[in-house]
Amino acid sequence: MNYLTTIVLLGTSALGSVAGVLGSFALLRRRALMGDLLSHAALPGLCLAFLVMGQRHFAGMLLGALLTGLAGVVLITIVCRFTRTREDAALGIVLSTFFGAGIVLSSIIQHRPDGGAKAGLESYIYGQAVGMNRQDLYLIAGVSLAALSIVAMLFKEFKVLSFDPGFARAQGWPTWTLDMAMMGTLALVTVIGLPAVGVVLMAAMLILPGATARFWTDRLGPMLLLAGLIGGATGGFGTLLSAGVVKQWLGFDPLRFGDTESNLPTGPVIVLSGTALFLFSVFFAPQRGVLARLWSEMRLRRKIGRENLLRTLYELSEPALASPAEISIDQLLRRRAWSRPRAHWLLWRATRSGLVAWGPGGARLTQPGVAEAARLVRAHRLWELFLIRGAHIAPDHVDRDADAIEHLLTPELLGQLQTDLAAAGVAAVQIPPSPHDLSRPDLSASTEPDEEPPRV
C-alpha cells in the first residue's frame, strides 16, 4: 500500500466515521434527505466561490459550499416555520432550486473564455478521492474532531431534540439554536466530504451507516458508536477495494469482469460497500432483520395454534375432565376455522410434545395437556370477565377479543386481573366458568354502565 493510498484511506475512514455519527441524528429526526439537500445546495456555492476568486482554491470553494448549504437549511426552516408547507415539500423545492442554480452557474463557468473549464467542478459533483493530499487529510481530521466534540458536548440536548422536541420546547430549551447547531455541523461534514465522494453520493455516506446501525441496537449511544464504526469501515474498505489492495490480499481481482481490469472510482465503491453491509443487516440483524422477524412470527403462530388447540380440547372435554373423551377432527373444525391439514399438523405437534394423545378415534388431552390447557383457559376467561365488567362488552362478543390477547398475558397480569375482579365482586376461583351464559346474574348485571370497572 503506497503513500497516496494511505492518505486516502485515512481521509475516507475519518469522513465515514463522522458522517455516520451526524447522519444518525438526521435519520432519527426524519431528516435523512437533509444530507442530500446540503450536498446539492453546496454546488452553487462552489461555482460562486470560483467566480469570485477566479481560480480553483480548495478552502475558498469549500467555504462557499458551506455558506450556500447553510442558506438552504435556514431557508427550509423559515419556510416550514412561517408557512403551511410540509418539511418534505420544502426540502424538495429548495434542493431542486439550489441544484438547478448550481448547474446553470457550472455551465457559465465551463463556457468562460478565460479557462473556466479548469475549475474542476466534476470532481466535486462525482468525487475524486484520489486527489486527496496531506493538507486535505488534516482538514478532514480537524473538521471531524470538531464535529465529534460538538456532538459530545451537546449529546443530551441533541438526544432530547431527536426524540421529543416538544418536551425540549416546553422546558424552555433553545430548540431553534440547537437545531441550527446540529444542521450546521452536518453541513460542515457534508461540505468536507464533497471532494471525496461528490455531491451525488455524499447523502449515502450520511444515511447508510446510521440506517445500518439502527438494525442492531435500540439505544442512541451504541447506535452512534456503531454508526461511526460502520462508516469508518466502509470508507476504508471501499478505498482499499478501489485501490487494488484487496486484490493483492486475495490474489485475484473480485471486481474484474471478463478481460477488463477493474479501475473503479473510490466514492461509488465506498457507497456500494456501505450498501452491501446495509443489505446484510436488513436480512441478518438479530432482532430487526427480515429473517429474525420471520422466525419470531413463525414461533408466535406455532404458539397460538398450539394454545388454541389445547383450549379447544379442554372446552370440549370440560364436562368430563377426569376422564376426557376423544374429540374428533370434525368437532375441532366446527369450533375453529382451520383447514383439515392444519388441524392434523397441530395435533401431530401436540402429540410429539406429550400434551395430546391422538389415535384413530380422535384426540384427547393427557395429564400434562390438561394442566397446560387449564392455565390457558384460565387466562382466556379472566380476560373475558375483565372485558365484560371493565369495557362493558356483551358476553357473547368477548370471545374473539380475548382470543387475540390471551397469548400475551403474563402471570403477573393474570394475578392482577384476578385480584381486581375479586374486588369487583367476581369470585376468585382458580378457573372461572365460561361467562357466555347471560342467565348468570353476577355477569349480566356487570354490564351496567354505572358500575365501577376494575382497574388493571
What is the distance, rounded to the nearest whole angstrom, between the alpha carbons of the first and last residues? 66 Å
Low-confidence stretches: 438-456
Per CATH, the architecture of the largest domain is: Orthogonal Bundle
Total DSSP E strands:
2
The number of distinct structural domains comes to 3
Strand content range: under 5%
How are the strands of the largest sheet arranged? 1-2
State Rg: 32 Å
CATH class of the largest domain: Mainly Alpha
What is the assigned CATH homologous superfamily of the largest domain? ABC transporter involved in vitamin B12 uptake, BtuC
The count of helical stretches stands at 19
The amount of helix comes to over 70%
Query: Mean of residue pLDDT?
Result: 80
Structural class: mainly alpha
